[in-house]
Design a protein that fits this description.
The complex is a heterodimer.
Chain A: H1 2-17, E1 22-34, E2 37-42, E3 51-60, E4 66-74, E5 79-81, E6 87-88, E7 93-97, E8 110-113, E9 116-119, E10 127-135, E11 139-149
Antiparallel strand pairs in A: 1-2, 1-3, 3-11, 4-10, 5-11, 6-11, 7-10, 8-9
Chain B: H1 2-15, E1 28-29, E2 32-39, E3 42-43, E4 47-50, E5 55-56, E6 59-61, E7 63-67, E8 73-75, E9 82-90, E10 96-103, E11 118-124, E12 142-145, E13 150-158, E14 168-179, E15 204-206, E16 220-229, E17 234-244, E18 260-269, E19 280-284, E20 289-291, E21 302-305, E22 322-325, E23 328-332, E24 342-351
Parallel strand pairs in B: 6-15, 8-16
Antiparallel strand pairs in B: 1-5, 2-3, 2-4, 7-9, 9-13, 10-12, 10-14, 11-13, 14-16, 17-18, 18-24, 19-23, 20-24, 21-24, 22-23
Classes of the chains: A mainly beta, B mainly beta.
Chain lengths: ~150, ~350
């Protein structure tokens, strides 16, 4: 009895101290020249043609590693993806979608134009997906991509 | 900023020219991201996040003025209602009015400006009949021009009568962005919002390029065209030779009473000039001569020939273009006297 209770208590303590507390936040930034230096600041003065950088930052505030992190970001309405701008901290795989459902590498993304199938242009991407294998406890990692306001 | 916009335009046009004006001012743009992950092989609940309220698209003020004249507009001295043509395009992302003005400045068609056309007025094409129509095109500012919209604007002026062939008057048209939204009422010039950026507020951003006489991002744009005077450029030269006298007759005659003197009035039109038409020379004879050949027995020469004067070889008559009445000779030249052409009027008189 005492042994059983001990194991139950041990399991409870163990489970309550082992967890992954993962969060994500998103920022939209624009370039600004301040004192002759170019910096990325919160996007506040945006007209057509302005480049906007979106940075999504994941944080693991828990005690165990989070795995197989899949970050999916639809290209915001009125924005056009800047080719090859998607990045991540460290190692990740990046795929794109032209319909928001199927993701693949650029060479395997197709659209139909005038009845003919062709490789999609970056401007035509509807979403981006990053896959990060691990995020250790007490670590943060970011992914980003650039767009142009139509 | 300009490089970003240029690159964006290249990207946008590659997709669709319909997006040239861009996203409408006041549009809110939001980003959403979803995170899916596992812990210990167990799938966790998805996490969603937004970039707060995103941002509101600001009001891009951008205007382009372009002359529609491919060459200078040729005008005649003393003419009125001469028209220069421009287009004004709203390259911003909102309906705007545009304030129009002209100045005697700028450069156009490699001409040297040396006079100012007078009575300059600006009128906007109404759309009823193409081309400037004095009774239809009466608006003096552009009202409620949509994003990507374009209007034709005319500058109408007069040419002083004193101008000569080759004179040029360069005129610059400037369009300044003004507040739109109220039809038939000219809005005030917009003010570039240089205050603190506000993500949730539609602010005004001047984004125009430098024009003929204005700077980059100043809320306006300009371009130049020119009037170029084309007229005849006539040189008149009078000459004479004595062809007979009572003593020597036709051999080395001298200018003595009774001698016959032949007058020539040569009119030459300069190269590159306009045709001269209805050219008439009048010559009041001095009291010391009498029109005609007197008692010399010669045949009176009174003609206009389409060649350079040769006093002793007056050529072949074109027509009876020379006449005399009460001591005044009138010579009517062949019409037109074209550029680089010379004509000569001959008539004989007798020294009293």
């Amino acid at each position: 009895m005492k042994k059983g209770l001990f194991y139950i208590l041990l399991a409870f303590v163990f489970s309550s101290t082992i967890h992954a507390d993962v969060s994500i936040k998103s920022q939209s930034l624009q370039e600004k020249t301040i004192n002759k230096q170019t910096k990325w600041v919160k996007a506040t003065k945006v007209i057509p043609g302005t480049k906007i950088r979106y940075i999504n930052t994941m944080s693991n505030n828990g005690t165990v590693m989070a795995q197989n992190l899949v970050i999916s970001n639809a290209i915001p309405k009125h924005m056009l993806y800047v080719d090859k701008s998607a990045k991540c901290d460290g190692v990740c795989s990046i795929t794109y979608s032209v319909d928001g459902k199927v993701f693949d590498v650029p060479a395997k993304l197709f659209v139909t134009e005038n009845g003919k199938k062709r490789v999609a242009k970056a401007l035509e991407y509807k979403a981006i997906r990053w896959i990060v294998q691990t995020l250790d406890a007490n670590q943060s990692s970011s992914v980003q991509f650039d767009t142009i306001l139509e | 900023m300009k490089k970003i916009l240029a690159a964006a335009c290249v990207m946008l046009l590659g997709l669709s020219g319909a997006y040239a004006a861009g996203t409408a001012a006041g549009t809110q743009v939001l980003n959403s991201v979803t995170l899916d992950y596992t812990v210990g092989g167990i799938n966790q609940d998805d996490i969603n996040a937004n970039d707060g309220d995103g941002f509101v698209v600001d009001n891009k003020n951008d205007v382009l003025v372009t002359t529609a004249d491919s060459v200078s507009v040729k005008v005649t001295p003393g003419s009125t209602g001469q028209v220069l043509t421009f287009t004004v395009k709203n390259e911003g992302n909102k309906v705007q009015d545009f304030i129009l003005s002209v100045s005697d400045a700028g450069a156009a068609f490699s001409l040297s400006d040396n006079f100012n056309a007078t009575s300059q007025s600006i009128f906007v094409e109404s759309g009823t009949t193409p081309g400037y129509q004095v009774s239809e095109d009466t608006a003096t500012y552009i009202d409620e021009l949509a994003a990507d919209g374009e209007k034709t604007v005319y500058v109408v002026a007069s040419i002083p009568a004193s101008q000569v062939n080759g004179d040029a008057s360069i005129i610059t048209l400037t369009a300044q962005v003004a507040t739109g939204g109220t039809a038939s009422s000219q809005g005030s010039a917009t003010v570039n919002d240089t205050g603190a950026d506000a993500e949730d507020t539609e602010q005004i951003v001047w984004a125009d390029s430098a024009g003929e006489t204005d700077a980059v991002e100043d809320g306006k744009h300009s371009d130049a065209s020119a009037y170029e005077v084309q007229s005849a450029s006539l040189t008149v030269t009078k000459g004479s030779c004595v062809i007979w006298d009572p003593a020597n007759e036709g051999t080395n005659p001298k200018r003595i009473p009774g001698a016959v003197v032949r007058y020539t009035i040569q009119v030459a039109n300069a190269a590159g000039a306009q045709d001269a038409t209805s050219v008439v020379a009048t010559d009041v004879l001095p009291g010391t001569v009498t029109y005609g050949v007197g008692g010399s027995g010669l045949t009176q020469i009174a003609r206009v020939v389409t060649e350079v004067c040769s006093c002793t070889s007056p050529g072949t008559a074109n027509t009876g273009n020379v006449s005399e009445s009460t001591g005044t000779v009138t010579a009517t030249y062949e019409s037109p006297i074209s550029a680089s052409e010379t004509q000569c009027a001959y008539f004989d008189v007798t020294i009293n």
